[in-house]
Design brief:
Layout (H helix, E strand, L loop, with lengths): L4 H13 L3 H14 L4 H12 L9 H7 L4 H13 L2 H30 L10 E10 L4 E2 L8 H10 L3 E15 L5 E8 L3 H5 L5 E2 L15 E4 L1 H8 L9 E4 L2 E8 L14 E4 L3 H4 L5 H4 L4 E2 L2 E6 L5 H16 L5 E9 L6 H39 L1 H9 L4 H40 L16 H26 L14 H32 L10 E5 L9 H16 L4 E7 L10 E7 L6 E8 L3 H4 L4 E4 L9 E5 H8 L8 E4 L6 E8 L14 E5 L9 E6 L4 H11 L6 E4 L5 H39 L1 H9 L4 H30 L15 H27 L3 H5 L3
Helix pairs in contact: 1-3, 5-15, 6-13, 6-15, 6-16, 7-12, 13-16, 13-17, 13-22, 15-16, 17-22, 17-24, 17-25, 18-21, 22-24, 22-25, 24-25
Length: 871
């Protein structure tokens, strides 16, 4: 029957220990035979240990010393163990892939925007330089305060000892490219070493020469982006040397950029001009920008000399900053110097890193739920492996070796799941970006980001994968090996599993309430009543200030356009405004002094024409609207009137306006509070002024008509000025500026919340089923003594729902503590919205009760006779 003696020993061992013998005979035996011992010797020693001669345990120490656990063997054994449990392995891998993949995708986006160096040659040698002011200062700004003036740029360029060169540039230049179809594009002002220092030689023609930057107003040359050259000029290979019209001024095309180069900002730049062309190209008092030594409008990028340390760079530039500060007593400047990225600007970097931290925290919470859920699965699985672990301890393995082996299994699952998740996220990253961009308002510029993973993304993904594997594997491994050989059959207590379930529910509750707040805010934004009429109103935007329109010419153009638009069929009202309602364009003013006060006040202002309020059905609650020809009148909102004059009547009060041709204006009306500037806020300090001749080049047209007159209005403007770029859209489109952020955030939070809910419910169901399975014999005894099915269900539900309820309370408290973070995009919705804080807990607890009820119902149907025989 047995041709080899050890086959007989294997048969006896299986007969005695059943399935638990498979581990020893299939795996531990292999480890011994690798060490040179025969299978017969192993069988004989095992039989001596577990058979009728327990005294043979004295050989345990010897076998322990002979036994080795090389990492390769541990990995092979972990792979074999997982292959015997394909369901558990598949569930764990998919769960980890979702958690790690989501984290990797979000970090990839954050890395592409704020951490990855610019996509240019030698990007590791490029550093951005910005300044942060403290103390007494008065500074002009066109962009952000942390930028530099031309004079400051030249000082840093000529007196530093750490750079081979410094580039100055000013992004987001809006200019109209003339032609048969005038169109507005974003461009960049650059110093004349822009292309040379960045190592981006144009594909056609040349970059800028020193002669292009000889003096203010010189340099009427332009380098086009490859996309603009291809789409607008049909990839004409001989286009260099020809002229194009930018803001009504001829510029000579000297080059076409490389196809992959789009500038030093995430937003596409379609052309580049020397910064000396600013006084010519920008008609908004351009000489006061380029020639102003105290004007913030240029960003700086320096290229390090070989071997320069960042500490030396900071010390060298700090000396220059202190020298400049001496020209402005009371001012102190510190410099922000770091590797140049798309988000080097301190103001932008703060926003990007803040938003990124919030989103990363949200996806990390999902990963935390994944870890808790898998830890619970491993705890349940460890119960079935207690005999296996006892056998391994008996044959000489130490607890440390067993913990290491169990951790190896967890890490192997985590690495496979992490690899799958990262591969999926990297493959989908480009599609995610395109989807995000497609849902942004049309006014948002195109952006370019490097979507491929770099070492930062790979290191981050590997780190969170290892942390995940350790996170869900360590505690179950320690718990599973904390047994003695005589007590392997005892039922473990469930405090740890209950605690893990409570943690899952707490995190899930936080995510779901946040999603509920955002979705409620999105619903409100879709159905908002801003306090004025938006329907059937068109906004007609053009930029006369960028087309060198003088005051008289701008006034005449606006007059002719108003008359022609008002005469169109179906048009019942026209008006002008510098800022259209809810356009997210804001004009602030800090030099307003209301009568009865000596203190200057800050307010948001708008310049509008007569008929603006009646066309928008924005009520004037006291006083009247503007009249034709008025130049010294103002209308304030109700909140502004209360804030400035208290209970006194605002009509007839005056406002002194500094730096204005009209030094004092009279309040002729009080408008009802409305959500004019910010969606969800109607109590801002807001003042309307009448449009003066100097304002005509900045005004936009509003047309109210029940007929679609976009084509007719476009023909009117083209007839008045064929080179003027035009943007016509329904006024209701302005709501997209406000709906888009909350819709993206709501979709992300909703997806994460749904995923967290699914994982948490699986964990709750699994724990409830496990507890019911472990108490089969107890349930049989209870039912044999007279307990009915309802009592059994209540027993299981009570034990399952207790950690759920505790976790729900903790989750509500946690979300209440952090919900203020979302207040900026809730559009007036309370951060403690009752619908979210009551409805979401009811939903989650109801789903958890259902998940717990199914195992409880199954347990209540157990046959008592069968249960009493259950081992």
């Amino acid at each position: 029957m047995f041709r080899k003696p050890w086959r007989f020993m294997e048969w006896l061992f299986r007969l005695r220990y059943g399935k638990s013998a498979e581990f020893v005979l299939g795996d531990v035996m292999e480890e011994y035979t690798i060490g040179g011992k025969s299978r017969w010797w192993v069988c004989r020693q095992l039989w001596s240990t577990y058979g009728p001669a327990p005294a043979a345990l004295s050989i345990r120490k010897e076998k322990q010393e002979q036994m080795t656990w090389p990492i390769g063997n541990e990995i092979r054994y972990a792979a074999r163990t997982l292959s015997r449990n394909p369901g558990f392995a598949a569930l764990a891998i998919v769960t980890i892939a979702l958690g790690v993949g989501g984290n990797a995708a979000i970090f990839s986006l954050l890395n592409a925007v704020a951490l990855r160096p610019l996509p240019v040659p030698d990007s590791g040698q490029l550093v951005s330089v910005y300044q942060i002011f403290q103390g007494k200062r008065s500074r002009s700004v066109m962009g952000e305060e942390s930028m530099f003036s031309v004079e400051e740029y030249r000082t840093y360029r000529d007196t530093n000892h750490v750079f081979t060169g410094i580039v100055a540039y000013s992004p987001f230049l809006e200019a109209t490219l003339g032609g048969e179809t005038p169109h507005e594009y974003l461009g960049t002002y650059g110093s004349c070493n822009y292309f040379d220092l960045l190592g981006e030689a144009p594909a056609i023609g040349r970059g800028f020469l020193p002669s292009d930057c000889a003096a203010a107003g010189s340099g009427a040359v332009v380098v086009l982006s490859h996309d603009l050259w291809r789409d607008r000029f049909s990839s004409d290979p001989d286009f260099a040397g020809k002229a194009v019209i930018l803001n009504g001024t001829p510029f000579t095309v000297v080059g076409v950029a490389q196809p992959a180069f789009h500038g030093t900002e995430a937003a596409y730049s379609y052309f580049w001009v020397p910064f000396t062309a600013e006084p010519v190209l920008a008609a908004r008092n351009g000489a006061k920008v380029y020639g102003n030594a105290n004007m913030s409008w240029l960003s700086l990028i320096g290229k390090l000399k070989p071997g320069e340390a960042m500490a030396h760079v900071r010390a060298d530039l700090a000396v220059i900053a202190a020298r400049i500060d001496r020209q402005y007593p009371g001012r102190s400047t510190t410099l922000a110097i770091d590797t140049a990225t798309f988000a080097s600007l301190p103001e932008a970097r703060g926003i990007v890193m803040g938003v990124g931290a919030v989103i990363l925290t949200a996806v990390a919470m999902v990963l935390l739920i994944v870890c808790a859920n898998l830890a619970n699965l491993l705890l349940a699985r460890a119960v079935g492996r207690q005999k296996e672990i006892a056998i391994r301890l008996a044959v000489g393995a130490t607890r440390a070796q067993l913990v290491r082996q169990l951790i190896t299994e967890s890490l192997l699952v985590a690495l496979v799941g992490g690899a799958v998740g990262c591969a999926a996220s990297f493959a989908a990253f480009g599609a995610i970006l395109r989807s995000i961009q497609s849902h942004l308002p049309r006014e948002v510029p195109q952006f370019h980001l490097q979507t491929g993973p770099d070492w930062r993304v790979l290191a981050y993904s590997l780190a969170i994968t290892i942390v995940t594997g350790m996170g869900f594997g360590l505690v179950p491994a320690l718990r599973a090996t904390k047994i003695d050989l005589q007590g392997a059959s005892k039922r473990p207590r469930g405090f740890l599993r209950g605690g893990l379930v409570g943690a899952q529910v707490a995190v899930c509750m936080t995510l779901l309430i946040a999603a509920g707040l955002l979705l409620h805010a999105l619903y409100d934004a879709q159905n908002v009543d801003p306090g004025f009429q938006m329907k059937d109103t068109l906004t007609v935007a053009f930029h006369l200030d960028g087309m060198n329109y003088e005051t008289a010419r701008a006034t005449e153009f606006q007059r002719q356009l108003l008359e022609a638009a008002a005469a169109l069929p179906g048009v019942d009202a026209v008006a002008q405004a510098r800022v259209t309602p809810l356009s997210d364009n804001h004009v602030g003013y800090g030099g307003l002094t209301p009568s009865g006060s000596t203190q200057e006040r800050n307010a948001e202002v708008n310049v509008v024409s007569p008929g603006y309020f009646s066309m928008l059905h924005l009520p004037i609650v006291r006083g009247r609207e503007f009249r034709n020809g008025e130049t010294n009148a103002a209308i304030v909102t109700e909140s502004t009137a209360r804030r400035w004059w208290g209970g006194a009547d605002a009509i007839g009060q005056t406002i002194r306006v500094d730096s204005s041709p009209i030094s004092q204006v009279v309040v002729v009306g009080v408008a009802r509070d409305a959500q004019i500037s910010h969606l969800g806020r109607s109590n801002d300090t807001y003042v309307y002024f009448t449009a003066s001749p100097e304002d005509q080049s900045h005004l936009q047209l509003l047309v109210h008509s029940r007929l679609n007159q976009q084509a007719a209005i476009r023909r009117l403007v083209h007839r008045l000025d064929p080179n003027l770029a035009l943007d016509i859209a329904p006024l209701e489109d302005n709501l997209k500026w406000w709906r888009t952020p909350v819709s993206i955030a709501g979709a992300l939070a909703g997806s994460l919340g749904a995923l967290a809910l699914l994982i948490a419910l699986l964990g709750i169901y699994g724990v409830a089923a496990f507890m019911a399975g472990r108490r089969v014999r107890e349930i049989g005894i209870r039912m044999a003594l007279g307990a009915d099915a309802a009592a059994v269900q209540q027993l299981i539900l009570r034990q399952s729902m207790l950690p759920v309820l505790i976790g729900a309370v903790l989750g509500i408290a946690g979300c209440a503590a952090v919900s203020k973070v979302l207040s900026g995009i809730l559009f007036g919705l309370s951060a403690y919205d009752p619908l979210a804080f009551v409805g979401v807990p009811i939903l989650l607890i109801g789903c958890a009760a259902l998940a717990s009820h199914l195992p409880a119902r199954r347990a209540s149907r157990i046959d008592p006779v069968h249960a009493l025989r259950h081992e």
